[in-house]
Amino acid sequence: MSTGEYQANLNGLNMFFGAVLGLVLTGTEKLDAWQFGVMLFCLAGNVITILFISSSRNRVSYAIFGLVNALLFPYVMGFLLRAPDLVPDKIQPTLLVWTIMTIVVEFWARQKEPEATAQEN
């Protein structure tokens, strides 16, 4: 995969799953303002973790952390909101697929960039 293909993959994934996440939030009308704020805060943390998979030197750690966050999201939200059934059920698979797809793109073999050469005379 070339650098351009890598960037296109990441940009496409982030735009697509950002839109999907917005769509799956339609089940949040039953949350009060405080609960919605807590959920947005936690979702923002998950999204940042997913973005760090491709932006950090610690990408393996962020990949593991992102998977754990996505897997535990409904349970953590149920605990924090004191109501396990308030979080829309499609948020977890959205976070999981986004995380897995980002991991696949990040760890897929890439072409090496040509090394910068000394300034030509």
Describe this structure in words.
The chain is an all-alpha fold and 121 residues long. It contains four helices and no strands. Helix 3 runs antiparallel to helix 4. It is elongated. The relative contact order is 0.18.
Topology:
Blueprint: H1 3-24, H2 33-53, H3 59-81, H4 91-107
Helix pairs in contact: 1-4, 2-3, 2-4, 3-4
In short:
The protein has 121 residues and is an all-alpha fold. It has helices at residues 3-24, 33-53, 59-81, 91-107.
What is the general shape?
elongated
N-C termini distance: 32 Å
Unreliable spans are none
Mean of residue pLDDT? 87
Strand content: under 5%
Q: Using the CA coordinates, give the radius of gyration.
A: 18 Å
- State the order of secondary-structure elements, H for helix, E for strand: HHHH
| Main beta sheet strand tally, sense and closure | none
What structural class results from the helix and strand content? Answer: mainly alpha
Tally of DSSP β-strands: 0
Q: How much helix, percentage-wise, in residues?
A: 55-70%
Number of helices: 4
